[in-house]
């Protein structure tokens, strides 16, 4: 049937194209099972920039809306208008907090990636030696001997 339609419309037959279907992970897989993977870091940066831009737009539009409604409320002296202003101010403040939270989350994610790429760092706040004083003195003497040995090797 498609051959008849091609003749009617004076078209040449096209090769069957492969269907591209996005999978649930966000990768694009075509019907021949070859995969095109998008760089995660590039996606992350693009998403971060998009979210940041959207939040800044919401903040600026909210501020402009507050100015407009404040003018209307002062002229009409309507309690409802002042209620709307209060809700809008709260909404803009929450959006500002969301923007700061976004920066904190990005910093946390990049810190985790840097730590994972280098090595895991352990922070010890309070170290307690469990043992006798004689054991502690032996340990300290051993470390002192190691330091003396390193210093003599360097000289």
Brief description of this entry?
The protein is mainly alpha-helical. The chain is 68% helix and 5% strand.
Give your account of this protein's structure.
The protein has 155 residues and is mainly alpha-helical. The protein has a single domain, classed as ESAT-6-like (Helix Hairpins), CATH 1.10.287.1060. It contains 4 helices and 3 strands. It has helices at 2-8, 40-76, 79-117, 133-154, and strands at 20-22, 28-30, 35-36. A 3-stranded antiparallel β-sheet has the order 1-2-3, with no helix packed on it. α2 runs antiparallel to α3 (79-117). Mean pLDDT is 76; it is low at 16-38.
Key traits:
single chain, 155 residues, mainly alpha, Helix Hairpins, three-stranded antiparallel sheet, 4 helices, 68% helix, 5% strand, flat
Tally of DSSP helical segments: 4
Low-pLDDT regions: 16-38
Morphology call: flat
CATH homology superfamily: ESAT-6-like
Give the percentage of residues in beta strands.
5-15%
How far is it from the N-terminal to the C-terminal residue, by CA? 92 Å
Q: CATH fold name, please?
A: Helix Hairpins
The largest beta-sheet arranges its strands as 1-2-3
CATH arch. level architecture = Orthogonal Bundle
User: What is the alpha-carbon Rg in Å?
Assistant: 33 Å
Instruction: Summarize the biggest pleated sheet.
Output: 3 strands, antiparallel
The number of strands is: 3
Q: Structural class from helices and strands?
A: mainly alpha
């Amino acid at each position: 049937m498609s051959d008849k339609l091609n003749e009617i419309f004076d078209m040449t037959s096209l090769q069957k194209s492969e269907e591209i279907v996005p999978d649930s992970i966000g990768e694009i897989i075509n019907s021949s099972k070859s995969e095109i993977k998008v760089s995660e870091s590039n996606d992350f940066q693009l998403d971060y920039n998009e979210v940041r831009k959207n939040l800044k737009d919401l903040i600026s539009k909210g501020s402009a809306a507050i100015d407009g409604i404040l003018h209307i409320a002062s002229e009409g002296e309507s309690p409802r208008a002042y209620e709307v202003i209060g809700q809008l101010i709260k909404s803009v403040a929450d959006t500002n907090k969301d923007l700061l939270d976004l920066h904190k989350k990005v910093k946390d994610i990049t810190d985790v990636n840097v730590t994972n790429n280098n090595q895991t760092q352990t922070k010890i706040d309070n170290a307690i030696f469990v043992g006798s004083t004689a054991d502690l003195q032996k340990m300290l003497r051993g470390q002192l001997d190691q330091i003396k040995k390193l210093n003599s090797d360097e000289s």
